[in-house]
Amino acid sequence: MAKVLVVEDEENIRNFLIEGLAIAGHEGVDAIHGKDALTKLTEHTDVDVIITDINMPHMDGLQLIDAINTRYPGIPIVVVTAYGSVSSAVSAMKMGAVDYLQKPIKLKELRAVVKKAAQRRGDQDNGAHEDVATATPSSPPQNSKASKGSKNSSNITRTLSWGAPSMKPALLALDRVAQTSASVLILGESGVGKEVFAHTLHQKSRRASQKFIPVNCAAITETLIESELFGHEKGAFTGAADKRIGVVEEANHGTVFLDEIGELKLELQSKLLRVLEQGTFQRVGSSNIIKVDVRWIAATNRNLKQMVKEGTFRKDLFHRLAAFPITLPTLAARKEDIEPLANVLLDELKHALNRPELTFTSDAIAWLKAQPWPGNIREFKNTLQRAIIMSTGSQLSADDFKFIKSIEIAGTDEMAMEQDLDMETLDLNAIERQTIYKALKQHDGNRRLAAETLGIPIRTLYNKLKRFEDDDE
User: Fold this and answer.
1) Which tens digits make up the pLDDT trace of 418-434?
2) Second-level CATH architecture of 3-125
3) Which of 232, 310, 347, 456 could form a disulfide with 236 if both were Cys (CB 3.0 to 4.6 A apart)?
4) For 332-472, CATH number?
């Protein structure tokens, strides 16, 4: 979860951003203009990302960026611009902003941009200086993204035993194809661990000592992804103040992992095909041909064969990428993996959430194994995290999981209620009230800490408590 300072003078947009961040599991701090933002930064020294509008009274976004660069260097800044005002975003990015959001803002784009910016902040905290996968025309990629991705993926790889019988065909295929240079297409539902699998394949290959660079094709804006992949020359387009080395060139002799490849637009698919077929590409704005030796791994949860029939995905690119397809089974088909996965994720989360004493009861493990997990490992981890936050004892029991599954806590998009509840007598308002009062009790009435525990803005908590009071009158 990232702590995000939102600087926006329009109240409706500011509230939308704060609530959108809460839905994505982030904590939002609001400011109404640049001067207010600088005051908030003295109060909230742990801000991870700043989102700011450009046109504001007292101190506009560009002035704020300049002040932050001087006083708080290293905090990633995302700017918000009106439709058609990309030039403002370019100016901001020349000053050091890492990305921009264009009004009207979509929640999906907000989540993706904040996630990237927060990862960049994490790289800096770990001693890195640049982020390979950031979508800024002015920032050349460095080694840090590959290093960070390798570290994170390696940790997750260790947590997944992958011991279920259903995984044996995929693991056998991984061992065989890893020693070749064949392109691999990883298929499977969202959340099954495709990036982890891709990184494991890289680690087992002859390229293991080289870079592994993941690129989320859905998280980078259409206007920037070509520059992200292939780089650009200085002056190639408005805002291209410096030459940029793209991911493909940066990963020479290593591996590029294209996640959500089905989101790539047709025009870029043809350019990607050239690299796969000939091993050559051109930076944006250059006629020079650059030759590279890259191992390609792609992944998607979409039906690419159907997309080929519909004309939204190139047939020749599909066959190039799918030289060796591997399908990963769902978590529900890997029941043997659930207990070791739960134990290692618990070890990771309980320390992050300052609950080092926590263990599982046997009925909790049984409950976890009995669930369908339509969101797979991602849903599994989210559920475990919420159970840790809401629990008060030294053990996580089945009742803890049933409770957090019975209501859609703000900040999640999981199923609203557990299937074995009595649907006729279920009172969601009562459950919401019970959840909030439990959080308040856990923190001795401290509303700020209760709001942080629940993953909702403090304003939302106050509004809900006021509604409870009105209902009681």
Assistant:
1) 333 343 444 556 667 77
2) 3-Layer(aba) Sandwich (3.40)
3) 232
4) 1.10.8.60
Please tell me the least confidently modeled range out of 3-17, 134-148, 256-270, 371-385. Answer: 134-148
Could you give the angle at the alpha carbon of 59 between the alpha carbons of 58 and 62, nearest 5°?
155
- The Cα 362–Cα 397 span in angstroms is 8
| Structure letter (DSSP) for residue 28 | E
Give the burial class of 370: count Cβ atoms within 10 A of its Cβ; 0-12 exposed, 13-18 middle, 19 or more buried: exposed
Alpha helices in 323-427 (DSSP H): 335-352, 362-370, 376-390, 398-405
Mean confidence (pLDDT) of the chain:
80
Compute the average pLDDT of residues 127-153.
Answer: 33
80: β partners: 53, 101
Domain layout of the chain by residue ranges: 3-125, 144-329, 332-472
**What is the third-level CATH fold of 144-329?**
Rossmann fold (3.40.50)
- Average pLDDT on 7-27 reads 86
Query: Any residues with CB less than 8 A from the CB of 78 and at least 6 apart, and which?
Result: 49, 50, 51, 52, 97, 98, 99, 100, 101, 113, 114, 117
What is residue 455's predicted lDDT score, i.e. its pLDDT? 67
Q: What is the pTM of this model?
A: 0.55
